[in-house]
């Protein structure tokens, strides 16, 4: 369909035509069996497979006034790639279940496919969309499943392996996406709370970076396998805010994670509580040279009353964006 | 949460509490790493993995007046298990992204989890839900990804392997789910087209079987590996109607599939056009003994003008339920 008008609604096209439009933008895959059969077949480095699934929903997870199709495709890929990376694994394929209102334009769908591909090419070269599903829905929904492989003979890096004495380190942004979300909520909503288009000209350069960090995060995917090879004892991706996720890691490991506020930059509150950057939080035995991109932000202590402390003091705030808790039903 | 009132809406519970309620009903998994980390890790029979994803959406794919939570969980599992089976593979795990309106009751969610588990236990013993994702949405959405393994050294069975002279065979129901859908559409909708509750007492025994076939299909999952071991040359699951799917198989294989109407029972029109039973359609070299459950329904010819004929005559009707084409926006 080289000449289709991008404004054409998908329900005036056949499912085959919509699929062809998407596949063209995804480019050739690398699977033994790719799209077009009942299922895909992938060859992995060994007989273990890493699988994770995460969904973006119009309303709680994104607003179409803020996110382009390209942003959404890239974000849907990035958040899933980060979960694979956080196991110390290399992402090899994405599977995308796309449910769209019938009036969605084919141009938007093509942009979404391009965003998926761009994020794979940029963050996890070699990983491609190798299958998916198209259906109609009143609510635009992008459900992505990511599949990864481990280095043969190397164990996955779990949340539960941190030991007292370990260094706590992070790779990637913390608080940037939250700063971007605050800008969007404060300045790009109408009086009823619905999202309105972002005016780039009204943003300072650093504000623009923050908004981009929210709409199109770039987690350090390759650093997942690097951390595993460097002997990370525990790892997870920070999706719900550093306090919340570090607390989970501490609890899973049966230790106390102590973060040092002075390592978290000038906006340490936002670094502690903001989510959605998908940085990699990892622990390493003391004395290990941290892999490139990781920086020390604390240390692991014997389990105390709290699984998380900041500068030695219990830290019990919630942090992060929780669609269960925080979504008010507003759209845009 | 042993004592939670089943009517409690999920948005009055924490995400952790909802998850605990689900996991309790799913039972223990068999993964190297199961729910609770960033991703699951599974051990497979060899270094190839089979992956497929399929979504059920409230509106186009189901009506809550007709389907219980248990039915929906079981159907979401079954349709994905069938796609794995159709590759000649054995399903080992499901990953379930569940997006729910905030007012969904915890009882419904628990029933859905039970349905997922029941379908796995019944249709694909050993397969379990090993991970997933919970989020809020205006539209109830169940996106399932199924993961399977192949017998070591055995190739997946593709759609493209049918050769002239092969037998065409099927395993499982054809037309039953469509008969059930017709009953639901004809007799259990209000004047505006919205679904209303099914009155079991108003159904004859055979009608009840048909309605169950629509709401809770039971595809012959184990017959997928059996067909592969018996040398199936091509295979796919019949989700969109026999005419549509047999045509796809013919086209992918570069042959003409000729079906024999007399083999399709008294309601051969519905058998030809009805979808959603998820029977396994396969081809075998002439003279092969068909594996248990498969019955001959036609033969493979040299490619003619049409990839599908019935009793030698071109068959060009559409068939099947297509949410793109057929959903009128009605709910219930």
UniProtKB/TrEMBL annotation, chains A, B:
Pathway assigned to this chain's UniProt record: Cofactor biosynthesis; thiamine diphosphate biosynthesis; thiamine diphosphate from thiamine phosphate: step 1/1
Family matches, as Pfam families: AIRS (PF00586)
Purpose of the protein: Catalyzes the ATP-dependent phosphorylation of thiamine-monophosphate (TMP) to form thiamine-pyrophosphate (TPP), the active form of vitamin B1.
Note: Reaction mechanism of ThiL seems to utilize a direct, inline transfer of the gamma-phosphate of ATP to TMP rather than a phosphorylated enzyme intermediate.
Molecular function in Gene Ontology: thiamine-phosphate kinase activity
Domain PurM-like N-terminal: 36-149
Organism listed in the record: Microbacterium plantarum
Homology family: Belongs to the thiamine-monophosphate kinase family.
Coiled coil: none
Entry keyword annotation includes ATP-binding: yes
TM spans (from-to): none
Positions of region (Disordered): 307-332
Record HAMAP family: TMP_kinase
Composition bias, Basic and acidic residues: 323-332
Protein's name according to its UniProt entry: Thiamine-monophosphate kinase
Residues at which ATP binds: 132-133, 159, 239
Origin superkingdom: Bacteria
Gene: thiL
Amino-acid positions noted as binding Mg(2+) 4 in the UniProt annotation, renumbered to this chain: 38, 52, 83
Residues holding Mg(2+) 5: 240
